[in-house]
Specification:
Elements (H helix, E strand, L loop, with lengths): L7 E3 L4 H11 L3 E4 L5 H6 L7 E4 L9 E4 L3 E5 L4 H6 L1 H6 L1 H8 L4 H6 L2 H5 L12 H6 L28 H8 L2 E6 L2 E6 L19 E7 L5 E8 L10 E9 L5 E9 L6 E2 L1 H7 L6 H12 L12 H19 L12
Parallel strand pairs: 1-3, 2-3
Antiparallel strand pairs: 4-5, 5-8, 6-7, 6-8, 9-10, 10-11, 11-12
């Protein structure tokens, strides 16, 4: 049985107190809310914080407010299950509701939070193992080792982004609010991530994700499609988030397509989105965009199923997401899948 290592747990009563506690703890401190990813990683000795700063009791970090016409605010400690069932999010931000409801199991979604999922650790077959297993193969650069076992010549870690909600937030143009000892700052969701499996967040260690700001909707439709071996519980091995603003005759005014689990950070298919702008989402155009989105998807052999299959499914899932936006069936227009 794997057990948690010893640590000190602090329960701040305000956000200011929490940020100060985290700053005082230095590199040995980490924030925790639901803990559904952090605690298993601690058991496997992938994280070894001596101090955990609890965020679950901070009222500023909970709840969903606002409306789709003015924009919505989601507290970072709001459980994923609550987001997946929220009426306004389900009706107007369906990609986010789908992504939140696809994370793990109902029990974990009751504990796991939206902020935690945005910051969830990157994953790799050689990293997400017990300490004894990793020691037997000589460890890897993400923890305790020197080199990458997936791409031995790589100077950086290639563990993949494993967040379901991150691609959606980027596609929607959401903002992330960060609080630290120096105050509060707001960054685009896309700016929260680096192309590095170890240092995958631009968030400073002494900062806390406090809220996510969803932009007002003006004809924007969104969809999220997830590939995994099992229909529940599993992390994504491919996630496709698509958002598009359509006018009354179905012409695409703007679009964003973001791929998850194909690299250390979500990958935006900018060329595919460019193809859609100013044109109606016909089956032929959707296939053209799907082929274009296939190109930046460069998965490696570091997660479930084969990399060739996962890359091929990027085209399929982009097509399905765009067809959902256009209210087309999956086979309309003679599509083979």
């Amino acid at each position: 049985m794997m057990r948690l290592p010893a640590f000190r747990y602090l329960a701040p009563k305000s956000l200011a107190e929490a940020t100060q506690m985290l700053a005082d703890a230095g590199p040995d401190g980490m924030p925790v809310s639901g803990g559904t990813d952090l605690y298993p990683n601690m058991k496997r000795l992938q994280f070894a914080p001596r101090t955990l700063v609890g965020l679950r009791q901070l009222p500023d970090l909970h709840g969903v407010s606002g409306d789709p016409l003015r924009g919505m605010r989601i507290g970072a400690a709001t459980p994923l299950g609550q987001i997946g069932l929220h009426p306004a999010i389900r009706a107007r931000y369906p990609a986010l509701a789908t992504a939140a409801a696809s994370v793990a199991t109902p029990q974990i979604r009751r504990m796991g939070t939206i902020g935690g999922n945005l910051c969830v650790d990157t994953r790799c077959n050689y990293y997400n193992q017990s300490y004894e297993w990793r020691r037997a193969i000589g460890f890897c650069m993400k923890r305790d080792g020197d080199g990458c076992l997936v791409a031995p010549g790589s100077p950086r870690c290639v563990a993949v982004s494993s967040s379901d909600t991150a691609p959606v937030m980027i596609a929607l143009g959401a903002l992330v609010v960060l609080s630290g000892p120096d105050g509060e700052r707001t960054v685009p969701a896309a700016a929260l991530y680096r192309d590095d499996g170890i240092a995958y967040l631009t968030k400073r260690p002494d900062e806390i994700v406090t809220a996510i700001l969803l932009p007002p909707l003006d004809g924007v439709r969104s969809a999220y499609w997830k590939l995994r071996r099992r229909g529940s519980f599993d992390f994504p091995i491919l996630g496709v988030a698509a958002a598009a603003r359509l006018d009354k005759d179905g012409t695409c005014l703007e679009a964003r397509i973001v791929l998850g689990a194909v690299g250390p950070r979500p990958v935006e298919a900018t060329e595919a989105a460019r193809l859609l702008r100013g044109r109606k989402l016909t089956p032929e155009l959707i296939e053209e965009a799907a082929v274009s989105a296939y190109r930046p998807a460069k998965p490696l052999d570091n997660t479930d199923l084969t990399l060739a299959y996962r890359k091929r499914m990027a085209r399929v899932f982009v097509s399905r997401a765009l067809r959902e936006l256009a209210n087309l069936s999956l086979t309309e227009g003679g599509r083979p899948n």
